[in-house]
Write a structure and sequence with these properties.
The protein has 21 helices and 13 strands. The protein has helices at about 5-10, 40-45, 50-55, 60-65, 110-135, 140-170, 180-185, 235-245, 250-260, 285-290, 320-340, 345-350, 365-375, 415-445, 450-460, 470-475, 485-495, 505-515, 535-545, 560-565, 565-575; strands spanning about 30, 65-70, 75, 190-195, 200, 215-220, 225-230, 265-270, 295-300, 355-360, 380-390, 520-525, 550-555. A hairpin with a 5-residue loop joins strand 2 (about 65-70) and strand 3. It starts with a helix and ends in a 5-residue tail after the last helix.
C-alpha cells in the first residue's frame, strides 16, 4: 500500500492547515451510500446465518459505493491498491490493528537529523556564549558561570523547537478520512459500517409540555457520514429460517404477538461516553445482542468522536442531533426486522417492536432522550422495553444540575450586517488564538507518547491490571481520523454555547422515562468509578428518588464495567432482566 500521501487520502504534514481530504483539496463531507438493507428484498435477507453474516461483514467493500459530495460522482473501491487479508486480534476477534502504514503517534526523527539539530543548536548557543563572555571579561568567573547556564537553556530551547518543527514536517501522526478507510476496507472492526444518514430531528424531547407530547419529529435537512457498529445475530436468522419453512403467515403473526408479550428484544441500541466511540461497546456487543435475543445490535460514533464526520455547524454536535442519528439507524434496523421476518408492510406498521437502549456516561442522556422519543413515535410502534444506563453522567443525578431558568433564554433574531461582520472577525481571530493552538496542543498531548491512552484509561478502570492492549487500541483508533481535534473542540464549544429550550434537567428526564409503561430502567455502576462516582450517597439518593429504577453495583470495577469485565456485566444484566419486576 505504498501510495503518495495525497492519493491515499492521508494528511499529516501541517496540523494547522486546512484539512485535506481524499485526493487533496479542502475536505468536504464524503459518504458511503445508504446501507444495502434499505433496498434489500426480503428474499435476500432470508438467507442462512452464515451467508447473512458474510454479507453484512463484507457490506462496506462490496455492497456499498462511495460518493463524494464535492463531485457527486461514484467512486468504487480503488483498484491500484494491493489489498491484503486483514487478520483480527486474537484477544478481540472483531477488532483490527491500525494498518502498519498509518501512525497514531509521532515517530522519532532519523538519527542523522537529530545529530544535525544538536550541532546547529550548539553552534547557535556557542556563539551566544562567546558574545556574553567577551562582554563580561572583567568579571570572568561569575560571568562564565552565568553564561554557561544561558547557553544550556538556549541549547535546550533551540533544539526542542527545531525537533518539534521537523517532527511536524517529517514524522507526524497520520490523519485519514473515514472515506479513505471505508474505500480501502480499513475500518477498525469487522462490524464497522459507514453510511450517509439524515438524522430525525427531535423537537427537544426534554422540553414541551410535561404530558410527554415532546417527542415531535421531522426530517432534518443535512445528511452526515456516520460510522457505526452493527452486529447481526446469527441465531435469529436460523430461527426465522426454520419458522419460514414450517409455518404460515398467520402462525408467525401469532408467535410474534406472544413474543411481544414477553421480555424479548427485537433490536438494541448503544450510546458511548465522552472521549470514546462505538468501539468501546465492541467487546460486549455480540454477546449482548445474542443474550437479549435481538436480531441486531447497533452503536454509532457521536458527532465529534470516532469516525463520524465532523461538520462545521455546532448544532450538529448537540445531543438531540445525536439521538436523531440513532433513531434513523434504528428505523433501518426495525424495517430490516420486518423484511427478515417476512411480515410485510402492513404488519410492519401494526406490530410493536421491543427495543433495548444502552447509554454509557455522557451517552446516558442520549439513551433517555431516545427512549422518550420512541415512546411518542406511535407511527413507528417502537416500545422502549429496556433502558440500561452504565455509570450515567446525568446532571441532577450523579453530577450537579446546570438547569437554567426559561426566562433567561434569548430569542433568536436576524443578525444585522454589522453583527455578521463582527462575528466573522471574531471567528477568524478565535481560530488563530484558540483553535490552532488547542488543536496543536491536543495533537501533541495524544500523539506525543504511545502510552497516553494507557495512562488515561488506567484511571477509568477499577483494576488497571485488567487493562489490555485491545482496550487501549479501541480508544486509540479514532485518533488517526481527519480533524478529530477540531471535532472535540466543536463539541465542547457546542455544549458551552447550547441554547436548548429544555425545561427538564437530566434527573427529571430520568423520572419521565422511569414512568413509561412496560419500561424497565437499570443503572449499572462500578464501586471504584473515579470518573463519575456513584458509590455511596449518590446511589442511595437515586434509590430514594427513583424507586422503580433497578440499581446494580459491580464490585471492584471502574467507569467502564462492560469493558473491564464483559462476562460479569452480562451476568448482572441477565439477572436483573430476568427478574419478575418490570
Amino acid at each position: 500500500m505504498d501510495l503518495p500521501m495525497k492519493k491515499r487520502g492521508i494528511v499529516g504534514k501541517t496540523p494547522m492547515a486546512p484539512s485535506c481530504g481524499y485526493g487533496g483539496g479542502f475536505e468536504t463531507t464524503a459518504f458511503i451510500s445508504p446501507p444495502a438493507n434499505r433496498g434489500r428484498s426480503s428474499s435476500s435477507l432470508q438467507s442462512s446465518a452464515s451467508s447473512a453474516s458474510a454479507s453484512f461483514n463484507n457490506e462496506n467493500n462490496t455492497g456499498d459505493s462511495i460518493f463524494s459530495s464535492r463531485g457527486g460522482h461514484q467512486s468504487h473501491q480503488s483498484t491500484d491498491i494491493q489489498q491484503t487479508q486483514r487478520v483480527a486480534r486474537s484477544d478481540e476477534p472483531n477488532l483490527y490493528d491500525i494498518p502498519s502504514d498509518l501512525y497514531a503517534t509521532y515517530r522519532p526523527l532519523p538519527f542523522l537529523v537529530r545529530i544535525l539539530i544538536s550541532l546547529a543548536s550548539a553552534a547557535v548557543s556557542w556563539k551566544q556564549f562567546i558574545t556574553l563572555t567577551f562582554t563580561y571579561h572583567h568579571r570572568l568567573v561569575s560571568a562564565t558561570i552565568k553564561n554557561v547556564m544561558v547557553v544550556l537553556v538556549r541549547f535546550l530551547l533551540v533544539s526542542s523547537v527545531a525537533k518539534l518543527c521537523l517532527q511536524e514536517l517529517m514524522t507526524p501522526p497520520s490523519r485519514v478520512t473515514t472515506k479513505y478507510l471505508a474505500d480501502n476496507d480499513l475500518l477498525p472492526s469487522k462490524l464497522s459500517r459507514y453510511q450517509s444518514v439524515t438524522p430525525v430531528a427531535i423537537h427537544d424531547a426534554m422540553g414541551g409540555d410535561a404530558s410527554g407530547e415532546s417527542g415531535t419529529e421531522k426530517k432534518a435537512v443535512s445528511s452526515i457520514g456516520v460510522h457505526s457498529l452493527q452486529y447481526n445475530n446469527p441465531d435469529y436468522f436460523n430461527k426465522v429460517e426454520a419458522e419460514q419453512k414450517q409455518q404460515q403467515q398467520q402462525q408467525r403473526r401469532h408467535q410474534k404477538q406472544q413474543k411481544l408479550n414477553s421480555n424479548s428484544i427485537d433490536a438494541l441500541y448503544l450510546h458511548h461516553g465522552f472521549g470514546a466511540s462505538s468501539l468501546s461497546w465492541l467487546p460486549v456487543l455480540p454477546s449482548l445482542t445474542e443474550q437479549l435475543g435481538a436480531r441486531v445490535g447497533r452503536a454509532h460514533d457521536s458527532v465529534g468522536f470516532g469516525f463520524t464526520d465532523r461538520p462545521q455547524s455546532l448544532e450538529e454536535y448537540s445531543v438531540e442531533n445525536n439521538v436523531g442519528i440513532g433513531l434513523e439507524l434504528l428505523n433501518d434496523d426495525v424495517d430490516a426486522n420486518a423484511a427478515v421476518d417476512g411480515s410485510g408492510e402492513n404488519e410492519k406498521t401494526e406490530t410493536e417492536r421491543n427495543i433495548a437502549i444502552f447509554g454509557h456516561s455522557m451517552g446516558a442522556k442520549a439513551a433517555l432522550l431516545m427512549a422518550l422519543a420512541c415512546s411518542n413515535r406511535k407511527d413507528a410502534r417502537l416500545n422502549p422495553r429496556l433502558i440500561v444506563l452504565v455509570a450515567p453522567a446525568l446532571e441532577g443525578v450523579a453530577l450537579p444540575s446546570r438547569k437554567t431558568s426559561s426566562s433567561s433564554k434569548k430569542t433568536a433574531t436576524s443578525p444585522s450586517a454589522i453583527s455578521q461582520l463582527r462575528r466573522s472577525i471574531w471567528v477568524t481571530w478565535r481560530k488563530i488564538i484558540v483553535d490552532y493552538p488547542f488543536r496543536y496542543g491536543l495533537r501533541r498531548l495524544v500523539g506525543g507518547s504511545p502510552n497516553f491512552w494507557r495512562k488515561g484509561l488506567a484511571s477509568a478502570w477499577g483494576d488497571p491490571k485488567r487493562l489490555s492492549d485491545s482496550d487501549v487500541l479501541r480508544f486509540q483508533w479514532p485518533s488517526i481520523g481527519m480533524d478529530w481535534e477540531q471535532g472535540l473542540l466543536n463539541l465542547v464549544r457546542s455544549k458551552l454555547s447550547s441554547s436548548s429550550n429544555s425545561t427538564l434537567d437530566d434527573g427529571e428526564l430520568l423520572q419521565q422515562v422511569a414512568n413509561l409503561p412496560n419500561t424497565k430502567v437499570v443503572i449499572i455502576y462500578g464501586s471504584k468509578d473515579r470518573i463519575v462516582p456513584f458509590e455511596g450517597s449518590v446511589a442511595e439518593q437515586v434509590k430514594k428518588e427513583f424507586p422503580t429504577v433497578h440499581i446494580v453495583r459491580m464490585e471492584g470495577l471502574g467507569h467502564d464495567p462492560f469493558e473491564e469485565d464483559v462476562d460479569g456485566f452480562l451476568r448482572e444484566l441477565k439477572a436483573v432482566v430476568d427478574s419478575e419486576n418490570t
